[in-house]
Amino acid sequence: MIRIVDPANFQIKREVDNGTEEQRRIVRRILGQVKEEGDRALFRLTERFDGAKLDSLEVKPQEIDQALEQVDDGFVQALREAAERIRRYHEKQKRTSWMETAEDGTILGQLVLPLEKVGVYVPGGRAAYPSSVLMNVIPARVAGVKEIVMVTPPREDGTVYAPTLVAAKIAGVKKIYKVGGAQAIAALAYGTESVPAVDKIVGPGNIFVALAKQAVYGLVDIDSIAGPSEIVVIADETANPAFVAADLLSQAEHDPMASAVLITPSPKLASRVAEELDRQCKRLERKEIAEASLRNHGAICITKDLPEAFEVANQLAPEHLELLVQEPWNWLANVKHAGAVFLGPYSPEPVGDYFAGPNHVLPTNGTARFFSPLNVDHFMKKTSVISYSREALFRDAEKVMALADAEGLGAHAASVKIRLEQKEEGEELG
């Protein structure tokens, strides 16, 4: 079911889905309709694509109360505790504005300010993940975003998946709208009579959501275009093969395009993990998905030693990286590229997905080489502050003008020169 590969020529088959021309055409048409018609287009498209004929787009408070009655108390408690852990973790990321004054009176600094409005897209149906509500909303709230708008597709009866609404309430979302797909992205980007326009859109979605986010980028900011889930496990002969197999399957069950890779210097462990994968996969509800993932995108890579295993992992730059080796902390410095690192046999990837506190929105498709997990900084912007004193300007004027003249920007130089001329005439600067 899973292939054994040599490290010399191994790489994950990365598939970036840019959609078909027909899909892109559909998205362009939907964006145009929402931009021109506003709510009228949203009602029509929601009925067409989701089968729901709505009287109102906004989720009412009583619907959230009803959702709370539909879910298990244990689920609510787990969600509340997860939210608190996520909040505490992200609080440590928050930055503050700063100013620095020089002896000549120059003040330089940076304003660190939250975005004003953020839109969070939450998928519906089988792809509904309440944990993603927490992971996308809580960092924005920690950053100080004033207005968070959540959109999610309704079911045919006009209701929203109850756990999603409960997660939104726990995360502190005040505005929730029953709209999904490319039309939801359009509403957040352009604004309609009901849905306010935002400054940034975050959250996963299908190909139509991804293409719509790409299309509106520039008018608004977006988080990223996420690829299929990935996990790499580096394990030595001390690893429990049942643990390794279970962790690989935890990602393989996501999607047939997900990748699950074991890198090990132990041929014996490789063989035992392959056996465990066959045995454990048969018991999964999502057996067909996991099998397709392992068959098409999974691998066991046998290296000559652990240092080579880390070299291979760094080339892959995986979304999730588990270190199931003896003394894992001694090897952490060997990790150069990974979205999240899980150390030791009792840190399986799902604890990061749901409960530990770090964000589970991670770079995929090898982009951990230059992207970071979703964090508080993604919901903040920086503004430079410059206040030159008279003394500092006269000191630096010739150098500023020389640089401006070298670039052929005479007006730049002139805006400095006019102040020098006033100085020479003995006039006070205004």
From TrEMBL:
<dbReference type="InterPro" id="IPR022695">
    <property type="entry name" value="Histidinol_DH_monofunct"/>
</dbReference>
<feature type="binding site">
    <location>
        <position position="251"/>
    </location>
    <ligand>
        <name>substrate</name>
    </ligand>
</feature>
<feature type="binding site">
    <location>
        <position position="254"/>
    </location>
    <ligand>
        <name>substrate</name>
    </ligand>
</feature>
<feature type="binding site">
    <location>
        <position position="254"/>
    </location>
    <ligand>
        <name>Zn(2+)</name>
    </ligand>
</feature>
<comment type="similarity">
    <text>Belongs to the histidinol dehydrogenase family.</text>
</comment>
<dbReference type="GO" id="GO:0004399">
    <property type="term" value="F:histidinol dehydrogenase activity"/>
</dbReference>
<dbReference type="InterPro" id="IPR016161">
    <property type="entry name" value="Ald_DH/histidinol_DH"/>
</dbReference>
<keyword id="KW-0560">Oxidoreductase</keyword>
<keyword id="KW-0368">Histidine biosynthesis</keyword>
<keyword id="KW-0028">Amino-acid biosynthesis</keyword>
<dbReference type="InterPro" id="IPR012131">
    <property type="entry name" value="Hstdl_DH"/>
</dbReference>
<feature type="binding site">
    <location>
        <position position="412"/>
    </location>
    <ligand>
        <name>Zn(2+)</name>
    </ligand>
</feature>
<feature type="active site" description="Proton acceptor">
    <location>
        <position position="319"/>
    </location>
</feature>
<feature type="binding site">
    <location>
        <position position="320"/>
    </location>
    <ligand>
        <name>substrate</name>
    </ligand>
</feature>
<dbReference type="Pfam" id="PF00815">
    <property type="entry name" value="Histidinol_dh"/>
</dbReference>
<dbReference type="GO" id="GO:0008270">
    <property type="term" value="F:zinc ion binding"/>
</dbReference>
<dbReference type="GO" id="GO:0000105">
    <property type="term" value="P:L-histidine biosynthetic process"/>
</dbReference>
<feature type="binding site">
    <location>
        <position position="229"/>
    </location>
    <ligand>
        <name>substrate</name>
    </ligand>
</feature>
<comment type="pathway">
    <text>Amino-acid biosynthesis; L-histidine biosynthesis; L-histidine from 5-phospho-alpha-D-ribose 1-diphosphate: step 9/9.</text>
</comment>
<keyword id="KW-0520">NAD</keyword>
<feature type="binding site">
    <location>
        <position position="206"/>
    </location>
    <ligand>
        <name>NAD(+)</name>
    </ligand>
</feature>
<feature type="binding site">
    <location>
        <position position="353"/>
    </location>
    <ligand>
        <name>substrate</name>
    </ligand>
</feature>
<dbReference type="InterPro" id="IPR001692">
    <property type="entry name" value="Histidinol_DH_CS"/>
</dbReference>
<feature type="binding site">
    <location>
        <position position="183"/>
    </location>
    <ligand>
        <name>NAD(+)</name>
    </ligand>
</feature>
<feature type="binding site">
    <location>
        <position position="121"/>
    </location>
    <ligand>
        <name>NAD(+)</name>
    </ligand>
</feature>
<protein>
    <recommendedName>
        <fullName>Histidinol dehydrogenase</fullName>
        <ecNumber>1.1.1.23</ecNumber>
    </recommendedName>
</protein>
<feature type="binding site">
    <location>
        <position position="412"/>
    </location>
    <ligand>
        <name>substrate</name>
    </ligand>
</feature>
<dbReference type="GO" id="GO:0051287">
    <property type="term" value="F:NAD binding"/>
</dbReference>
<comment type="function">
    <text>Catalyzes the sequential NAD-dependent oxidations of L-histidinol to L-histidinaldehyde and then to L-histidine.</text>
</comment>
<keyword id="KW-0479">Metal-binding</keyword>
<dbReference type="GO" id="GO:0005829">
    <property type="term" value="C:cytosol"/>
</dbReference>
<feature type="binding site">
    <location>
        <position position="407"/>
    </location>
    <ligand>
        <name>substrate</name>
    </ligand>
</feature>
<feature type="binding site">
    <location>
        <position position="251"/>
    </location>
    <ligand>
        <name>Zn(2+)</name>
    </ligand>
</feature>
<feature type="binding site">
    <location>
        <position position="353"/>
    </location>
    <ligand>
        <name>Zn(2+)</name>
    </ligand>
</feature>
<keyword id="KW-0862">Zinc</keyword>
<feature type="active site" description="Proton acceptor">
    <location>
        <position position="320"/>
    </location>
</feature>
